[in-house]
Amino acid sequence: MSADARTEKLVEGVLAGEVRAVARAMRLVDDRERSFHDLLKAIYPKTGRAYVLGVTGTPGAGKSTLVDRLIEAYRAQGKRVGVVAVDPTSPYSGGAILGDRIRMQRHFLDDGVFIRSLATRGALGGLSRSAGDVIHVLDAAGFDVVIVETVGVGQDELEVTRLAHTTVVVMAPGMGDDIQAIKAGILEVADLFVVNKADREGADATMRDLEQMIALGGVLEKQGAGPTARGHSAAAAAARAGSGASGGRWVPPILRTVAVKGEGVDAVIEACEQHHRFLLETEEGSRKRAQRFEQEFLGVLRDTLLHEAERRLGTAIREAVDAIAERREDPYSAAERMVGSVFEETEE
Ligand code: GDP
Question: Which residue owns the Cα nearest ligand 1 atom 26?
Fold first, then answer.
């Protein structure tokens, strides 16, 4: 069979939702070969149907346990669920360790659930690009919900959550310091906060910390109900009362769960649905959706440019690195020189 015919067959399999074809397509994700681009091009028109749910938060907060429960709940609704587990911290595990780590193994035998782990590779194209491609494959294969779970809240991981329609940030009691440490990045990505381990002491305090953080973060200020006029706690209470879609904006709700017992999971799903509707039905929502496309396209463009530059420049890149290391050249001039030479070649 020719390479083209093989790709075509693979595309058919993916679009028919065949798990084996999906698994094979996934294996192509990292090699960035021509055949994979061809596959992505062929399936893209069939994407856009899946609801992509990002789950992030500090390690140990209970993300995997919650994801396991979410899978269960969505399966009970008859939905097929894809899971992309992202672990940028273990470049050498190839995802295997993460695969063992995740508490979802009981779903491995279910054809309606597909779990794929992703770890950083040294290769071109970042983690978020690979995650984006994997999401498209699952989407085209007819998975109704794609959950993207990250191990922690590093920069790469926050980047990945931007691919999601809705991002859930999971916290646990006693992690107040973490909230401070990651506040800026998290406020930007969080559409929904979950305080898990609500069976533990300190859950109320964590709820309050989050409320304060949301209020101080200016989410309410943008609505004209900022903390300055009413004092912090009043603004925090307002954040809670007015959470969800309100006045054309989205104020992240804070929910409690006990993931080990499955408590509060239905409310999380309900809030996710509300957020999804907000994205589809409001102006602010369509602006956010447009941002996702822009973000993705710029990523693909960056990758494609870099890939092409590598192909054309070959060893010149290595030579430039050596020159920079020996301080014969600075990185800025070297980059400008190379970009210049790549584009000149194109214009000829
Ligand atoms: P992750 O690192 O965020 O994915 O966290 P895990 O899902 O691996 O959970 C970390 C630990 O917390 C595990 O031992 C879980 O059994 C436990 N855990 C998860 N959810 C809850 C909960 O609601 N209550 C309690 N008490 N423990 C939980």
Answer: 197
